[in-house]
Amino acid sequence: MRVRLQSELVKDQIMPALETLRKSTKFFSPFTQKQLILFQEYFRFLSFKEKTQITRRGEPVDFLGFILKGQVHGFVENQHKITLAEGDCLGHMACMKLAGCEVQQIDYFAKEDGYIAIIRLDDLRTLQKRDSEFSTFIYKQISLFTLNSVSQQYLGQEYQSIPEQTIVETTTKKIMFMLDQLGVKPDPEPNKKKKEKQIMEEPRNLRFFWNQLEQRDKRAFVQNCTLIETKTQELLVRAHQASNVFYIVLDGELIEFQQNQPSVIFKQGDTIGLKQFLINANQENNIISRMKCLLLRITKSNLDDIATVSGQSVCSIITMLTRFEAQKLKELFEKQFKDEQQGLQRKVVALVDELSHTFKSVSKKDQQSASQLMNNFFEIDVNKMKQDDKSAASQLEKQIIAPLYLLDVYKDLVAKRYYQPNEVKDRKDPMFESGLSIFIRDKLSEQRTQAQKKKEELKKARKLGKTIKEEDDDIEIHMDPNQLVLEELNNDYYKIVDERDKFQEYTYLLEQQIKQMKDEFKEMKEEHQRMQTQIRKNEMHKELLTLDLASQLLQPTDRTTKKKHTLYDNYLVQVQENKKFKKTVQVAEKVLTMSQLHKLQS
């Protein structure tokens, strides 16, 4: 069966809401008026009521959604974890293909009435081919939103910390003087044959994401990036410069000096300036190479060149970089978490040793029971800690930490299937296993019932001789092939019936017009004949009166002598010629009339 998803909001309601979000949210603030119109065209706007379930844990993530109005509560095991408001996003991490995000991890319920803008992930991939420029812009915004979400979850701070804007002209002379003193030379010509080889020699994390790209995307990336080499103590990035470029470190180390904060060292496999590139901000600090380094330089114009050839390739590249940055944020959190847990475990072990020396010795059974109680209290294996100084949290590397604002990082939520016993009835629905989320399933079922009612009304209208205009829909979700073929045949049949009705109405109108034209033409012809006869009579009478020969018309021709009156006989000859000419004109008019009628009927 062919199921179509329709927008439930009127265009007059959509644009004011998008304009409000552009003024009040960070995600929509970079949108232009043209991009808002494209957003309105490609997305579907659906309404939801209070207590409507938007997502269900365990179901696949199949859409990208933006809340335009209202609030949505997120629950994990019946515990409230998060509240999403206007401008928040759903499904962005699945769009960026982060590990463990292909399955819903949180149950979202509507707190109040509102509406949401959604687009299915399959349609978003199709959009990459249809409109590469807009899809690239959307992917950059989703990438920034995803990295901000991961940074909030793991580090408790925003990813896009925009520095204060400074005037470039005031610092250009000083920076140019420093560059002249350092002896910076122009970038060497890139060696395209060695680029891909250099990328393949990257560390495990970057190589892992790089290998997941298709060969077409790899080729497009390599052909449009630039391979550069820096010397020791060479200035790579100037502070407060416009960030339209970012780098990937292939070899060597670089250092970033920060005010009132420890310096940051960039090693092999790190990215430089990606955050500022995504948010279109200026660089915060100077970055200098500590040794001879090899880097890949990617500019905004490079991505635009890739987008002109293939919008799908540039979206895949942005997705790869986003996954890599999210993995770095996760590793940073795990390192901090590991250090904290190791420090806590050392304190616990020291406390246990101190207690064992302070108090009297106890029996082995009491010691084991006390150790078991302490293990259950601290959730730490003290004996194992003595043998191997590793945190239990270090095993998180083998697990998938469920993202998307998940605060409880100690549970592996991805490995479970969250089907409650009361959900067995829902699972019998054939649409449950079709890869659609619960919100889209409910909306499709509502629209399916509405479509059925419209079909019944259409049948009744056809019986009464009326026609109803059917609206065309853009998004199509294909279900059972047999039902799909039957539905297509029915749709084709109704289209043919509608076309036949329209043709019959058009034919009837043409026939009425032709009949009316014939009657008018006949009346005009008769009137023309009467006028011509009257004109000839008047002219003849006038001519005879002027010549004073009217009395001669009363004299007949002398047939015995065969003498004719000259004027009268010439007049009769002229009348006969006029009759012949009149017949010729009538025949020509009939021929023209028949040809015109034939054209109208055809």
From TrEMBL:
InterPro entries: cNMP-bd_dom, cNMP-bd_dom_sf, RmlC-like_jellyroll. CDD domains: CAP_ED. Keywords: Coiled coil. Residues 27-94, 209-306 form the Cyclic nucleotide-binding domain. Residues 441-471, 507-534 form a coiled coil. PROSITE patterns: CNMP_BINDING_3. This is Cyclic nucleotide-binding domain-containing protein.
